[in-house]
Write a structure and sequence with these properties.
homodimer; Dihydrodipicolinate Reductase, domain 2; Alpha-Beta Plaits; 3 domains; 11-stranded mixed beta sheet; 17 strands; 35% helix; elongated
Chain lengths: 440, 440
């Protein structure tokens, strides 16, 4: 047994991830010491309530409600409390005392990342946050280190397990969202209040973090365009399947060199159609995956469990070992590079493909009229499919038809205005849906 | 423009990867400097022949045939010559002079890895080798860093693009290997002498590197069991497809806690059956993928281009940026941990599932006889399928039938002995094939 230098580790938070981290730190201490080159001594676990029930039984004498005192003198501080305060203050205090910080706090990084990375730079400490995006999947380190010599062109991520579970079951079972959501809540895959997940807030935080890292640019959360999945119906899922697509909630981070800008980025979260033969289409259940297109490396995909206490704890512990190695090696920490400082495009300037579904009058000349409006609006048609709507008894026509229009690449603003003009036109009964198509 | 500290970079080798690395280093120098926090100054490129044709035009004044002189005084040495010597001597000289080393040399690392990592440890330098396994796919860094706090249980990798291309086309087109191989050679996906790829030598080198890293154990190349794909016929591919499987050349690295051993590892390369719904089954063409099962993280997959000059150059440049950051930060390098030092099991002790295809006499009692031999040999049957062989004219029976037996998990040695007993038995006309089944 080697007599390793001891590093004092403070853990803040003992929720589903924190309690697993504590458990693994204690259970595998010898192995972790060999890998880190240092003995990782868990000095204490700061919790709000000493008597709260936990996923894993933790030694009572390690628990404390006094995080401030615990942080003092620690070499590595693991923040798994979540939320903005007091997590932010604790992390800043830890960095200022010379500790390296490991965190899984996506909400904090997406809103106060720049402040935290600056604080780390000032003192030469490091902040590790592999657990903040896509749970157990190594994606932060590959983007920060492995692709540091390359230029990322686009990231498309399935980064929220709850919404992927819901959309995947809607797709495979032909069910309505409400039924699946209730089931997901019963199984613990969705919160009692699912807003953060199904409205895309969680995915938007992760998109901001991924884009900041990939494009070496500080991307504020409010620059991320966000749409949730609540508008997706069984009918839309069925139509997507029929057309060879599946609907996924995607976080898209893209380098753009458009007609008005030299170089910019676009960061957006929305449900989108993706072809069934795309690798992201085969990501099922609560799994996550991040598809990266880089200039030299080509297409890469990282796939695995996007959440779960023990799975995410794996990512945290990897970061703890990295922090320990760096702490032992000495030298300055690796700062976040935001030197590219690219502008973030408004959603109106984004260029992508669309699928527009219209209910129209079933009479001659309607298609020509619709095509004319699209053409005037600078939206070019790639495919059209027309189906006659059956009457309520399933036999006679209702006088209306359905047009499913796939567009070539168009500017979002042009598409928006064109859809408004279509909606106002006499021949259009209603605009059934507008969905982006990604990954072609 | 920031006035960065300059780091002297020496490049050894200007083949398909090396010339792309030089090109990207020169073209993206400003961006790379921002990311590395240091100006990466390409001091020279050592080549064997100054006038050899190259994939990319390189500045003539950077070329030199004197690698020894080029290495002196360099901060980072990139070795992309391949082969054992003089690559090994150059790397050792570089490390001993205090340089960090980036290499993509799998043959060297699989045979002299321990020597090189020891030399780096002695002087506190680092060796980076992301490009040595699976081209552009970040897999070394995730294994070394991201999963450093976890326990890898199994790795199954498609790590050779040439064989995956051949098997994938045999599967999708129902073609024989010889035809596809000729085509692959024409397209540049296979070498004129394809032995290294199709006999599994290349995959075995990568398996040794992956296993060493994942299990913190020095795995010598000759401890890797290796079988190539030349025994795979169209008939076997068709039978696999019929049974819901696909045949892939897999590099399997497994932590084993068997009946005779407390803890050991097994490292093996062979063509194996894998279920069509396994994520590895959808890895097509020359792509690579590495599927990792870890105790805490669960299942992860890393997918992308496994070869190609510019793709692999991306991995090299990521390592160069990491090396530069470390060089600037100072402190000791991260050594390779081989402290677990697990024994490597002989193939005879490996436990897996098998599919045994027999041609047998078509008469009553044969199945019972075969089942008896399997049972005596401690091989338990999971599934049996029997088909009558049509006669040459397609109408009458030939007197023989085909038995496809899927086994439960069995010990390789037991299976081997049992198959020998089957082959010698009167009722068995011949053993058509024996294939392992992985990933269930």
């Amino acid at each position: 047994m080697i007599d390793y230098r001891r590093l004092r580790v403070a853990l803040l938070g003992a929720g589903s991830v924190g309690s697993q981290v504590a458990d693994l730190l204690l259970a595998h201490s010898d192995e972790l010491a060999d890998r880190a080159g240092a003995a990782l001594e868990l000095a204490g676990i700061a919790v709000r309530d000493l008597d709260a029930p936990r996923d894993v039984e933790l030694p009572r004498d390690l628990l404390t409600t006094d995080a401030d005192t615990l942080i003092v003198g620690s070499d590595i501080v693991i923040e798994l409390m979540g939320g903005i305060e007091p997590a932010r203050s604790h992390i800043l205090a830890a960095l200022n005392s010379g500790a390296d910080v490991v965190t899984g706090n996506k909400a904090l990084l997406a809103t106060h990342g720049a402040e935290i990375f600056d604080a780390a730079d000032q003192v030469g400490a490091s902040v590790y946050y592999e657990a903040a995006v896509a749970g157990a999947i190594p994606i932060i380190r590959p983007l920060r280190d492995s692709l540091a010599g390359d230029r990322v062109q686009r990231i498309m991520g399935i980064v929220n397990g709850t919404t992927n579970y819901i959309l995947d079951r809607m797709d495979s079972e032909g069910a309505e969202m409400a039924d699946i959501l209730a089931d997901a809540q019963r199984l613990g895959y969705a919160e009692a209040d699912p807003t953060t997940d199904i409205e895309g807030f969680d995915a938007a935080q992760k998109a901001a973090i991924l884009a900041s890292l990939a494009f070496h640019t500080s991307v504020p959360l409010d620059a991320v365009h966000r749409e949730g999945i609540t508008s997706i119906t069984k009918a839309e899922m069925d139509a997507a399947r029929h057309a060879g697509y599946v609907i996924k909630l995607l976080a898209v981070c893209e380098r753009v060199t458009g007609r008005d800008v030299d170089e910019a980025i676009s960061v957006r979260v929305y449900p989108a159609l993706i072809r069934r033969d795309h690798p992201l289409a085969s990501v099922h259940g609560v799994n996550n995956a991040v598809f990266v297109e880089a200039e030299a490396a080509g297409n890469l995909m990282f796939y695995g469990a996007g959440a779960g206490g023990v799975q995410t704890a794996s990512a945290v512990l990897g970061d703890v070992v990295s922090a320990a190695r760096r702490h032992i090696a000495g030298g300055a920490g690796v700062g976040e590079s935001t030197r590219a400082n690219l502008p973030v495009l408004d959603i109106g300037h984004v260029v992508t493909r669309y699928q527009v579904t219209l209910e129209v009058d079933d009479r001659p000349g309607v298609l020509a009229r619709v095509a004319g409006i699209l053409s005037e609006g600078r939206v070019s048609i790639a495919t059209v499919e027309q189906t006659i709507q059956p009457g309520p008894d399933g036999t006679a026509g209702t006088g209306s038809a359905r047009l499913v229009i796939g567009t070539h690449k168009a500017v979002e603003q042009d598409l928006d205005e064109t859809v408004q003009r279509l909606a106002a036109d006499d021949v259009v009964v209603r605009v059934v849906s507008v969905l982006r198509v990604e990954g072609d």
